[in-house]
Amino acid sequence: MGAVPQFALEDLERLAPDQSSLTAARKLLKPAKWPLLAHDDEFLWSQHQGSGSTPYLTVLAASDQGYKCTCPSRKFPCKHVLALGWLAAESPELFSPGGEHPQWILDWLSRRRPKAAAPDDDPDGAGSKANAPRVSIRAATAAATASDEKSGPASQERSKASRERNRRAREESIDAGLVEFDRWLDDQLRSGLARLAAQPGDGLRVIARRLNDAKAQGLAVRIESLASQLSSMPSERRLATLATALGEFHLLVQSYRRRDLLDDALRADARRALGWTTTRDELEADPSTERIAGVWSVLAVRDEVQADRLRRFETWIVSHRPGTAEPRVAVIVDYVPVAAGGATTSPYTTGDVFEGELLFHPSAVPLRAVATSAGLQPIDAAPDLRAALGDQGLEAALERCDSTFARLPWLDYVPVRVADVELTQSLADGSHWLRDRADGTAVPLATDAADRSLRPLEGVPLERAFGLWDGQQFELCLAETHLGRWSRP
Amino acid sequence: MTAARGEGTAEDRAPKKEIDEERVPSGRGGRLLPDAGAWTRTLTLGTERAPLEPPVDLARALGAASERWMPAALALTAQVKRFTRAAAPELRVGAPLPAPHHPPLGPRARRLLRRACERGADAALVGAIWRALDRTGRSLHPFDLHDLDGLFGHDFARADPLVAAWLDRTSVRRTSHGDRSTPAADDADLDGDDPLWSMLGPAERAERLAAERRRDSAGARLRLARGLSSEPAATRERLVRALRSGLGPDDAAFLESLATDRSSKVRDAALELLAQIPGTARNSEMVDDLVARIEPVRGTPSLGRKSLRLRCPERLSTVGQRVTWALSTFMCVPFDLLCARLERDPFELARAARPDPVLQTLLLALDSLWPSHRHDDGAEGKSLDDVLPLARRDLVLALAVGRRDSALFDSQLLRRLLDPSRLDGLPDALLLTEVLGQLPGAADDLRFVRALVDSRALSDALDAAAQDREQDVPRLFGELLASIALLVPTEDRAALRARLSRLPVDLRNSALERLALLEAIETDPGTDLPAPSAPSR
């Protein structure tokens, strides 16, 4: 293993998309925020504990300054890439020899194409980059220093007051947006839902845009997703789905409007559903945050592209706490811009095992969690997943789902761990159902006739299973069988 | 608000068409929710055209806010639906897939296999996987069949009863959710009743058809033939062109029947495919036409009969059209047949060509497409050197594609053509591996593959790629190395790995992954499958 690949600060200036990126990168140079800084002869790679629930993975190639980062930034390269190069230029001693490349780097390498010659190589100097305003390390450093100087007590007070003003302004904006939503919903009911069901895209996206402008992004994304969902379903099912969804939106809006009457946890749920976010730092600073440390196994990884062009990854994990309380299920949510490429994958794979502490968002049903700044560390272990999946029957599991939905009515779905079930088919229409082998309780599976992924499970007893229940259908994600583990492709 | 579970009947599971078929529990909700029929009508038409009074209890509960009772009723209805579970219809447990006849692969090999196939597996990779499984007596794991679905061809199905059962159960032609053992189900198969087929767009159907052709070319052709006449012309053309995958003599009769199609585009597509099937009248016509168009160039005594000229159809006015025509024509004509029809020995035909007699001869013919370059080099901004690499590659591939069997590989001419010692640098190495990937006889010839690994061409190419990483070369070179990795005999893998080690990681990564996959399969300990458990509760 040779020395750390060298980056000149001038290279970073050339690479940076704008001055603000460089300034932002300058603020990331504190080593404490980098759980991993590694190198070999060709690459630098790192983990940076950003605002996402999992550390951002960043790699930078020495030969052609090719890069990859899992953060959701729409700037290319992002501040993490620039900061990684900056650290290598100024503090190479922070990097340790990396050994074998992690799989995510190998995946990237298998897809990447080397960068073409930079416009700066244009002998005429006519390349677009050559004409772009210059960005400067010196200016970024000066800006960061000025920012540090302004961080005295008085400045902090001013910042706090400013944040409070912004919060109030956003509250007012959201309240105004919700009034507009009420008016829109009344209009739809007055003129009938038939037209909206027939052409969901136009009607729903108009109100979604207004809610987005009113800073109620959470509700806006739900409405945009509904538009996409309706557009892809047969027309005869649209009206029922639309009516159900509008009812849930109304419930959410009314709950938010009466948030002062709700308990703290449900109020936090309503705020989050409307679009308010809680950062990891805020969770860490809050003494009431629920923390659970332990060993976690990945049960399922789901992803969907949202209407706001972000790919949302849900990683469902379960804790192993033998001899203590019941295993705990949590979901880690990450976002990656679609612009980062369709091949972008979750950092997690079903069956991975990690160790670390999770911080749970306050909620009536605390499921969503983020890792602490220390991150989740992969470990080479194979804990007994069957024990973590429990041994309750389907009926008992669904009873618990009901109580969960009763606590948080707009929850999309509830994680379900169940034992001794089997895959069955309806004699009437061929639809797939999950049936308890002991008492015959059955629920429809979220699948269609064309989905062949379940076929290998036909006739195979599912000794333990994990899935998601939305009150109507069960999405089977993982099963332990005598043939081994099955997981949804 | 929470309804009891299990209420309702099997009819509740019928496709939901309107709100009134939902289980809106006006009875269970007392007077909180409106009557289902009136509710649906009002929701559909709106309160202006179908006004509705609020239920008494709901209005009372809402109090002053009762003017907006409809959104509240919507929310209540949604919650009731969430807490109401559908009654199960009569259910059956499907028959399990047959047990693998060998121990299935273990976790490591399964993971590598799925990963390799996620990135797209070509015929060469599938063949290598199959041979590795065969050598080591391992079977695919039943749970991986779905992920690996696109890989299976006839050979795989013949070799592995599990795969055969999977294909039988899931292939487009036989997809049906009913009981497989009933005569009615078999009739449905004969009708080709694929529930998805009619819902797919032309592009998706063409893709699906092409994939099925790789598994079951006759079945896919039958499916196409059944509903083709009712499709629009553009769709018919697209679907017919999908037959290119797995094209063979058995398709000739069907394609000839399309030669009278009402659409000229469909007719052209059918004729193009027919021309690619040796032995058909259309193919013979093309050979006749081509033979007539290859003429000795007169007035060049120094070259004698070695110099040939290709006379293109006069209707082709541009160079691009002529090149396209020439390549597509050569693609349809087996070279051996061409030589026979020209009554020339291939070596005689190719004698003056350098460095590669066959290609050079054909290129000399192709050369006549650029009449200007001989007299005024670069007059059209394009010299023979510019098109040489591409043309060589396309023409050799045409030979390989035209007759994809071991007999072609055994021909002395092609063996000389593909002699690794004659290869020159990266383009030739690329070309060689592409041809090797298409000729099963070549891939099985270990002497040949060893010669390639040891060849100076590969060594030069490795050096060049390590030094020069411009544009497309690394990507192509990575593919080349990945192809070689599949061909190398087990005992030579360490040598190849050593030679790859000096390359940048992004060039060697794919090849190393394939080596690791094959090694994992060949050294896999297998998985013992215990008996299924009885219910524990």
From TrEMBL, chain A:
MF GO annotations: zinc ion binding
Location of region: Disordered: 115-169
Biased composition (Basic and acidic residues): 147-169
Source organism superkingdom: Bacteria
PROSITE patterns from the UniProt entry: ZF_SWIM
InterPro entries, sorted: Znf_SWIM
Domain SWIM-type: 56-89
Pfam families per record: SWIM (PF04434)
Keyword tags: Metal-binding, Zinc, Zinc-finger
Keyword Metal-binding appears in the UniProt entry: yes
Keyword Iron: no
UniProt name for this protein: SWIM-type domain-containing protein
Record organism: Rohdeia mirabilis
Origin organism lineage: Bacteria, Pseudomonadati, Planctomycetota, Planctomycetia, Planctomycetia incertae sedis
Automatic annotation (TrEMBL), chain B:
Regions of compositional bias (Basic and acidic residues) in chain numbering: 8-25
Region span, Disordered: 1-35, 173-196
Pfam family, one: DUF5691
Protein name: HEAT repeat protein
Source species of the chain: Rohdeia mirabilis
